[in-house]
Structure formats: C-alpha cells, structure tokens
C-alpha cells in the first residue's frame, strides 16, 4: 500500500551522490521506497516527474519532488528533525563546506575516476558523464584528466590528509560522537574513489583514521528500503497534491513572485534541459515550481538556490 507520506527515492546503486543520501537515511533511521532508474538518459519516467531534470538522485514525497542532494538533505532534516543532521552549532559552516564537497572536491574525484578508466569506459557512459561534468569539450577533458592523473591525485591527497588529521583524536565522526550531514557529504567522495578507481584502496590505506571513520559511516547503514516501481511512483504523484506552502521570502534578489513563469537548471554548462514551471515558493535556500501534465498531475519541483540558475525572461 503506497502512502503520500512515503519517501520515494529515485536512484541507482552505483551513484555516489545517491550514496550520500542513502547514508543520510541511515543517520536518521528512515524507511524509504527504492525506485531504480537508468544510469544514463533517457529516463522518461523520472523526467516526467521532474520536468526534465535528469541528475541522480531525486526524492519524491507525494507530489512534492526534490532535486539535488542539497535540497533533499535539507528537506529530510525539516521533516524528520531527530536525530539532527546538524548536531553542533556549526550548521552554517557545514552548508558552506558542502558547496566544496559537492562541487570542486566531487568534480576532482570524477576526473580521477573517468580519467583513469581511459578507453575502458563504455562510449555512451563516457559521453554522458563527460558532457555533464566537463562541458562541451568533454572528450578533450577526459584526455587531459588521463594525462594529468598524478597531479589530480596529489590534489585529492591533500584534503584526505586534512580529514585524517581531524579524526586523529579518535572521534567517531567528523564533528564528534554523532554523525552529521557533513559526514555523508564527504563520505560519498571517499566511497566513490575507493569503489571506482583501482588506485583508491591503496591511497586511502595511507590514512588510518580516515579509514576508521569510513567504517563508522558505513556501519550507519541506509535505513530500511523496499522496492517500488517507477509506475507506482507516478501513481502516487497523480493521487496527491503538493503540500508546499505558497510564498516568496523578503529580500528576493531576482524579484520573484508566486505564479511567475520561470526555468530552473544547474548553473553549469552540462547540456541539460531546463525545468519550466510557475513559482510556488522561493527563499534563500530553495526555489519550488509547480508543473501540471496529464501524465503526473500537478507536482511541485524543488531545487536549491545555491548552484542553480533561475531565468525569468520567458
């Protein structure tokens, strides 16, 4: 029996960004429905819900659709405040740091993983991920990553050393005794490097406290999941209505108002389709737009403000 309050998670097992959110589920001990999506486009049943957003993962609760792990983690902490993702008073610093873990640090790991694979990468996967992370000249970007691999590894080794030093006092997690969002946000990079780069395990073995922390995060698990079909997820959206409150917060820098028609897309040159809709809510953290189609009914699609572009000249 499906419920409009179920956490529905659109992901695939090999996705490092999905692993970040799966760890977040483990921190909070949440139950969730697991919808497995394709690794590369087309993803028609996912993009029907999002309006074109194709990145992994996406979280759905009823007909509210949450894109980007930044938005997902924030919403999980709002809906399920205990145990918190922010066990210290440093939430602002953690969110600022997450822009690096999810941005430059993850991009560095991607270059190492893709660059080290060389011609072993399936052509369709290389083209899709290369375009997504390296722009229009992705093929040259992959060749450069392969040629500069020792340099890229040196760039990754430095922050791993810093993390190892942070954990050198024996603490279980990065901020102390309790796991936090930043543990999930850094763990997914380590998980990716260990599992997808053949030099990863050797490199990580240099940092024993980091490896101990990695084991502690892994032991948190992923909460409790149960399989769900993509078709059932769409039925859940059709039978629900968005619950997000309407409104735009004060000091809105782009002059947005409820009902404005906008497009939203990642603020990078990844060749991705913008999502079009009407503004339902906006504040410093989030933009949410309503969309209505025969296939999914009315859905409210949520994006972070940081890292996303909103265009209003429609």
Explain the overall architecture.
The chain is α/β, with parallel strands linked by helices and 314 residues long. It has two domains: 8-83 and 225-311, Glutaredoxin (3-Layer(aba) Sandwich), CATH 3.40.30; 91-219, Glutathione S-transferase Yfyf (Class Pi), Chain A, domain 2. The protein is 45% helix and 18% strand. It has helices at 16-28, 44-50, 69-79, 91-117, 123-134, 138-147, 149-166, 181-196, 200-204, 208-219, 230-238, and strands at residues 8-11, 31-36, 58-61, 64-67, 224-227, 247-248, 261-266, 275-282, 286-293, 297-304, 308-311. Strands 1, 2, 3, 4, 5, 6, 7, 8, 9, 10 and 11 form an eleven-stranded mixed β-sheet that branches. Strand 3 and strand 4 form a beta hairpin. The longest helix is centred in the first third of the chain and has 27 residues, at 91-117. The chain is globular. The model has no long low-confidence stretch (mean pLDDT 97).
Fold blueprint:
Blueprint lengths: L7 E4 L4 H13 L2 E6 L7 H7 L7 E4 L2 E4 L1 H11 L11 H27 L5 H12 L3 H10 L1 H18 L14 H16 L3 H5 L3 H12 L4 E4 L2 H9 L8 E2 L12 E6 L8 E8 L3 E8 L3 E8 L3 E4 L3
Parallel strand pairs: 1-2, 2-5, 4-10, 6-8
Antiparallel strand pairs: 1-3, 3-4, 7-8, 7-11, 8-9, 9-10
Helix pairs in contact: 1-8, 2-11, 4-6, 4-7, 4-8, 5-6, 7-10
């Amino acid at each position: 029996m499906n419920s409009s309050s179920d956490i529905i998670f659109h992901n695939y097992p090999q996705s490092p960004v999905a692993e970040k959110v799966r760890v977040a589920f483990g921190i909070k001990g949440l139950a969730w429905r697991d919808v497995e999506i394709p690794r590369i486009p087309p993803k028609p049943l996912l993009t029907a819900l999002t309006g074109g957003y194709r990145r992994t993962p996406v979280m759905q609760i009823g007909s509210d659709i949450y894109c980007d792990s930044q938005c997902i983690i924030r919403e999980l902490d709002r809906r399920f405040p205990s145990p918190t993702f922010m066990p210290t008073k440093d939430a602002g610093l953690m969110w600022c740091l997450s822009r690096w873990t999810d941005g430059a640090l993850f991009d560095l790991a991607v270059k190492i993983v893709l660059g080290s694979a060389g011609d072993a990468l399936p052509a369709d996967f290389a083209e899709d991920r290369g375009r997504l992370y390296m722009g229009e000249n992705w093929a040259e970007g992959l060749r450069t990553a392969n040629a500069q691999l020792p340099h890229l590894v040196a760039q990754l080794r430095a922050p791993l050393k810093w993390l190892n030093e942070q954990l050198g006092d024996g603490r279980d997690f990065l901020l102390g005794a309790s796991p936090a969002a930043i543990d999930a946000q850094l763990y997914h990079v380590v998980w990716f490097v260990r599992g997808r780069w053949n030099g990863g395990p050797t490199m990580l073995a240099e940092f024993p406290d980091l490896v101990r922390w990695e084991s502690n995060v892994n032991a948190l698990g992923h909460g409790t999941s149960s399989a769900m079909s993509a078709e059932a997820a769409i039925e859940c959206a059709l039978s629900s209505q968005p619950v997000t409150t309407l409104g735009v917060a004060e000091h809105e820098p782009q002059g947005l108002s409820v009902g404005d028609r906008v497009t939203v897309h990642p603020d990078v040159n990844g060749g991705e389709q913008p999502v079009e809709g009407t503004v339902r809510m906006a504040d410093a953290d989030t933009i949410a737009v309503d969309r209505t189609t025969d296939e999914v009914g009315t859905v409210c699609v949520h994006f972070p403000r940081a890292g996303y572009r909103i265009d209003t000249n429609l």
